[in-house]
## 1
Amino acid sequence: MGKIKIHPDQKYIEGLAANNSAIIQEIYKKFVPKVVFYIKNNSGDQDHAQDVVQEIMILLFNQAKNKTLELTCPFDAYFFLLCKRKWLNELKKTSNKGVTIHEDVGSINECGVELVEQTEQFNEKQQLFDAMFLKLGDKCQELLKLSFTIKSMEEVAEKLNVTYGYVRKKKSLCIGQLTQWIQENNNFKSLKNN
Amino acid sequence: MNEERYITFDQYLQDEMTVEEKNSFEKQLAEDPEFAAEFETFKNVHLQLETKFGYEQEREAFKENLIKVSDKHFNKPKVIALKPWYYGAAAAAVILMGLFFYNYSQKPSFEDFNHPESAYFTERGNVEATLKQAETAFNSKEYKKAIPLFESILKENHTPEIQYFYGVSLLQDNQIIKAQNVFNQLKSGTSVYKDKATWNLALVKLKQKNYNACREILLTIPEDYEDYVEVQILLRELE
């Protein structure tokens, strides 16, 4: 693997992770108008644009917090492409008639495509994970939630009125259950793809 | 489910193994791809859980902040209308329109758009007595008292920041010509107070009920001005 060169626009990603209002405002001022223009030109209105942008911003926050988002291209192209693809997906979902897409050629940027795909995969993974988590029993859900919010397992044990040894073991097994399901899902997917 | 395995994974991640246990664990990782793949997934699940719950509060704070910025950006009337008197004004306008059956519109007033911000000069290091006095006077809206204080500070320390607050004080104290001079100077400069000064020049015109001049000045304010929403609202009301 080669050394990845981080683009200076990484400051936007870090700003989002830090909930920096100035950075959020800057993103809206600099990059959002283009998204609004595109969505309005492609069967949407201002409210659609606002929703798409908000969802993408939350997704970026999550990925940034996960420390898996490293910008190697300008934020502009990356952000626009993410919003655009999100909107086109929404369109596909809601309309069964053909939609004419008005492309502006200037917005296609190869460097952004790969990053956008990574972010979309991250999103899929997160959604899959959330769905799996909800399949767990109530006890597991509660224990995991506490373990990762409080962090001290002694306190978790106290709170649940059980022994330290029990919460430790149970935590491993609950994570194990999720691991197993995700493994199975991955195997299923690769079978399907072969 | 391979319970023992998951317990070992957790022990390894929490760094609770003896040196021998650790070595044998790492040996197995290197030699058994199935074991390694499962450990990788386990680690991922761990990370996902950390992201999901560890940042819950931060995520909520982010969402709240995001919605604020977003609504401001998209100029949602709901946010502007938060002040209860707006509803009253809107209702009154509707009634008037109904009564007189013509498009009644009221010109905006200076008071509606006059919200001088607070000054914070003295949080940075050395506290100068006069500066502190000026700040206190300004923030408690005692502009008559603040003006001479700003004048004496400006003799020694002619910064755009002090100039700006001096200008605002003059405007509040109805010393229109002097205020205009100060804002015009700032407007032709390059400081961060440039756009704010232009906004205040528009307010001067609004105060004088010179709506056309007010509009013209507003149109020169660039869109990236931090309070551009206010500019847009005033422009709309001037129409």
## 2
Amino acid sequence: MINGTKINIENLNLFIGNNHILKNINVEIPEKQLTVILGPSGCGKTTLLKSLNRLTDLYPEIKIQGKIFNGDEDILHPKTEITELRKKMGLLAQTPYPLPMNIYDNITYGLRISGRRKKRFLNKRVEYYLRQVSLWDEVKDRLKDPASALSIGQQQRLCLARGLSVDPDILLADEPTSALDPISSREVEELFVKLKQRYTIVMVTHILRQAKRVADYVIFMYLGEIIEHGPAEQIFEHPKNALTKSYIQGTYS
Amino acid sequence: MNRQLLRKSEELFYRVLMIISTVIIIIALLAIIISILVKGLPSLSWSMITQIPKGGYYFGKEGGILNAIIGSLYLSGGATLLALAVSLPLALYMNVHKLKQKNVVNIIRFFLDLLWGVPSIVYGAFGFTLMVLLGLRTSLLAGILTVTLFIIPIMVRSMDEVLKTVPKGLLESAFSLGSTRSETAFRVMLRQCIPGIITAILLAFGRAIGDAAAVLFTAGYTDYIPTSLSQPTATLPLSVFFQLSSPIPEVQNRAYASAVVLTVIVLIISIASRGFSMKYQKNKIK
């Protein structure tokens, strides 16, 4: 076990129908670092990410075996209190899906379902989290506008603020910049670099340059298997596996 | 060259087909509305919608159809509310709680579709059997219960179709914030789908207020406005039917006037609910 392990995945196998999507995954994700899951499209990165907070529960055709531990809590155990577990993990999806309500309510939703209702408290939290994602100045005069009226880059930052609002200690991000324009992408990326001091972040990406800019720890996947994992410099400078090497040098096509 | 021509004529063929279909539908709709307006409007008077039938009304004497207007509103209003109380939870349950058991949901859908296809006279006959069994007489209550059964499949399946269109990503967002299934259903799905759900309620209400066969044996008919659930009640479709079967031309024209009233009620409710759903439309996530 590496020092300060946050999430521990043991013998994870996942099937969609008869297709073996994740093959014997064994990996440890370090605490308060930014771990990047890197690999070409369709290699199971997103599926792995979604099994971490059991969003895989929503898909009837998915069968999952193995164990995932968050600390000593067994995430995949059917008796695990899944709503509490999900609160500890903020999710940022590939395309932003704000909730169908106004900007203010998007941030307070998570707090309200946890029973926080005091207006003063909610107002303060909204400002705090919107500042965290540098969105406050852009939206402070139109908090009651529908979230769907924001630009897609603003929506993605709103979703990040919403994810932070339930006070998670893990952030899961599934190609969080892939739907955004270059400027918004850069903003979101910088936010992640800022946030990794305080959160354990798992980010899926297929963009090599992005991975190089943000990663502390890298998991390289190919066709449902983990090919190699380790600290970022080691993977980027001295990859051991030939496949990793070709992907990192850009000769993989 | 030949292929170009073929594609162009194909395009033309389908376009003409679509235009013809549209025109047929519009003409049919206008023909119905114009014919009831032409025959009905001259007989429509203030007294007709503010009075109950007086002695000899069905022979062309004084009076109105207020009994049927109020009766219809009571009956379809009650049935719609009752059906809503059953349908909304079921539709949400099928689409949020039972996400993982697709087979169960598909079986429920299959049976609802079957029930949708059952003619309303069969519901009427079933309602009548039930009344005999329970010792009920023809009454507002029996009518409401029968019509409720009749519109539940319509309401559930229409809501179900709307809820099915909610993007998976939105559900994932809601669940990731630690929502329980019920919180996701009532706080997120419902808000996202309000316009469609209102349309579903309206569709069911329209069927409820327009149906004659389901209430024929169960709600009865009376010249008075019901003051309790155990009294029989008149309804607009039956009022149209009874007046139309009269040999007296004046009374027949009043049937068309009653049809105008029925159409206007549906129209008013339709417009009102549209305004209401516009209010929520703006929050919808695409």
